[in-house]
């Protein structure tokens, strides 16, 4: 009775332990991450649809009703700092890139988990009925054999593997020569297998972890570069929007002046002082200014959509009619910049250089690893085993724990590739890759130096453009006033006035563009040095999506 209870308890422990192990490895994915299958109709892939513009015409009745509380504002003033904050919070390019560090960190965890201990179990049952020749007839030899193994396998950072195993065997036969029937065999063993040359040592076996960690830092560098790029792009679009809005104001002002000129021409014609052609000339000038307004408005809408796309703010989508008004004004200040320190700062701060340094560190680790892989494979194996035997399971385990029967096994395995060309080729590839990376680093350094010097020269040139365009705008304004007075004295035609007015408008537009381009040149200089010029320090954090997996 005790023997039967022991058997039941034994199998209960085995199956409960195995079930808990399986449940521990199960994770529940979120509902929206479950596997799904999609089937695309062939005509969707092979048939090109036509665009019918008549069906795309706007219809007032088709427009959705918008709650006044949720309606987007007609105008919205934004400072440069607010645009940067909104871009950091909502920009889609950043949302894509900010997930990459979380993926890279999980790859590091994956490589570190290769040294986790593993539980293993083998359960088997065999029933045989083997024919055996006897002196009288052919008889059967029936055997019922049950085996169970429970153990733990522990990978070592030295490259070896330690295994602990508890074995239980039950054999029942119809043989008359069997003393124990059924017979129980038990065994407890501990073994270690350790490479001595190839794959030996902590540095070699943590190679994959180091590479994953380097790649994680490369991903962080790429993410930081993307953050800088998005903020720099926000600044550029902001200043171009500022220039487009000022350009529209100039064109509207010139249109008003053209209307005044037209009215003055009509008065002179009606009074008989001028010919009818003056009205035609003035109307042509008004039409020309109207065309300039249309072009400026379209350019402004393009700039607004570009800024809305970068900001990606809810309620401020690209389809919304909200007019964006830049509240930050340009503040051009001349700088006398020393180029050599800026080049050094750029080489120190540019994430492209840091990425190359990390790649070179990877190459050095790869050379070390492939050099080890070219060594012979020498493995030392040692196994210590204790055995037990009895007519009952309790008797077998009692004998096992008495440690009366102990085994020791020691082995040495040797494998030497003849020629070893595969390993040598991989070693040469790793060496060449490092040389390639060093040459790339030198080339990248010269490219960065060129970018910084170009940015400095562009900044100085844009400052000179501001001075020149401002002077040109002042003189063009004086010329326009003079031409208008000459027209009043019947010394100039409306065409001459509109020519001077066009030059005046172009000079004002050039001054506005010079101011915006100077601010953009500051942004480009900061980007070339791997920094954010004039902005507060920005810190980013990786975005870790909720997976439901512990």
How would you describe this structure to a colleague?
The protein has helices spanning 2-24, 42-46, 80-90, 92-112, 202-205, 207-270, 277-311, 339-349, 351-373, 393-402, 421-488, 494-528; strands at residues 75-78, 118-133, 138-155, 161-173, 183-195, 323-326, 377-390, 406-415. The protein has 550 residues and is an alpha+beta fold. 56% of the residues lie in helices and 17% in strands. A hairpin with a 4-residue loop joins β2 and β3 (138-155). It has twelve helices and eight strands. The protein has a six-stranded antiparallel beta sheet with strand order 2-3-4-5-7-8. A two-stranded parallel ribbon has the order 1-6.
Features:
alpha+beta; six-stranded antiparallel sheet; 12 helices; elongated
What order do the helices and strands follow?
Answer: HHEHHEEEEHHHEHHEHEHH
How many DSSP helices? 12
Task: Please mark out the parts with pLDDT under 50 across 5 or more consecutive residues, or reply none.
Answer: none
Mean pLDDT: 86
Shape by Cα distribution: elongated
Query: What percentage of residues falls in helices of 4 or more residues?
Result: 55-70%
What's the number of extended β-strand segments? 8
Order of neighbouring strands in the sheet with most strands: 2-3-4-5-7-8
Largest sheet: 6 strands, antiparallel
How far apart lie the N and C ends? 45 Å
Please state the structural category. Answer: alpha+beta
């Amino acid at each position: 009775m005790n023997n039967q209870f022991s058997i039941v308890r034994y199998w209960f422990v085995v199956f409960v332990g195995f079930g808990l192990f399986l449940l521990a490895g199960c994770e529940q994915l979120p509902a929206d991450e479950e596997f799904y299958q999609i089937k695309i109709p062939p005509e969707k892939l092979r048939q090109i649809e036509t665009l019918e513009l008549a069906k795309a015409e706007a219809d007032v009745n088709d427009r959705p009703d918008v709650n006044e509380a949720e309606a987007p504002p007609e105008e919205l003033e934004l400072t440069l700092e607010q645009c940067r904050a909104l871009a950091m919070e909502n920009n889609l390019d950043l949302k894509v890139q900010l997930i990459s560090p979380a993926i890279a960190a999980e790859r590091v965890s994956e490589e570190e988990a290769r040294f986790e201990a593993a539980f293993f179990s083998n359960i088997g049952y065999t029933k045989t009925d083997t024919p055996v020749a006897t002196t009288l007839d052919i008889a059967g030899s029936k055997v019922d054999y049950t085996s169970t193994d429970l153990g733990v396998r522990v990978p070592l950072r030295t490259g070896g593997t330690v295994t602990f195993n508890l074995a239980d065997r039950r054999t029942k036969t119809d043989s008359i020569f069997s003393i124990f029937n059924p017979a129980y065999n038990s065994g407890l063993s501990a073994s270690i297998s350790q490479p001595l040359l190839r794959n030996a040592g902590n540095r070699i076996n943590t190679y994959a972890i180091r590479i994953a960690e380097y790649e994680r830092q490369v991903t962080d560098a790429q993410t930081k570069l993307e953050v800088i790029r998005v903020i720099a792009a926000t600044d550029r679009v902001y200043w171009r929007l500022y220039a487009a809005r000022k350009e529209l104001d100039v064109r509207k002002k010139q249109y008003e002046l053209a209307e005044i000129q037209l009215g003055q021409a009509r008065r002179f014609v009606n009074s008989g002082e001028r010919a009818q052609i003056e009205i035609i000339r003035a109307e042509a000038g008004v039409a020309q200014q109207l065309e300039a307004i249309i072009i400026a408005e379209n350019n402004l809408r393009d700039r607004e959509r570009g800024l809305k796309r970068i900001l990606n703010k809810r309620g401020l989508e690209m389809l919304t009619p909200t007019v964006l008004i830049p509240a930050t004004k340009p503040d051009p200040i001349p700088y006398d910049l020393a180029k050599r320190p800026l080049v050094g700062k750029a080489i120190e701060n540019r994430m492209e250089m840091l990425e190359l340094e990390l790649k070179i560190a990877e190459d050095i680790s790869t050379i070390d690893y492939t050099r080890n892989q070219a060594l012979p494979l020498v493995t030392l194996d040692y196994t210590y085993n204790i055995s037990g035997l009895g007519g009952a399971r309790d008797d077998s385990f009692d004998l096992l724990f008495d440690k009366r029967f102990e085994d020791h096994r020691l082995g040495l395995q040797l494998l030497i590739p003849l020629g070893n060309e595969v390993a040598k080729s991989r070693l040469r590839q790793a060496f060449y890759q490092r040389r390639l990376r060093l040459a790339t680093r030198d080339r990248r350094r010269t490219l960065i130096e060129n970018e910084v010097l170009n940015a400095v020269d562009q900044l100085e040139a844009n400052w000179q453009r501001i001075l020149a365009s401002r002077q040109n705008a002042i003189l063009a304004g004086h010329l326009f006033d003079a031409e208008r007075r000459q027209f009043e004295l019947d010394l100039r035609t409306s065409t001459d006035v509109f020519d001077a007015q066009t030059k005046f408008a172009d000079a004002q537009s050039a001054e506005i563009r010079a101011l915006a381009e100077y601010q953009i040149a500051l942004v480009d200089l900061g980007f070339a040095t791997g920094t954010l010029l004039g902005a507060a320090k920005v810190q980013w954090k990786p975005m870790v999506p909720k997976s439901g997996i512990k």
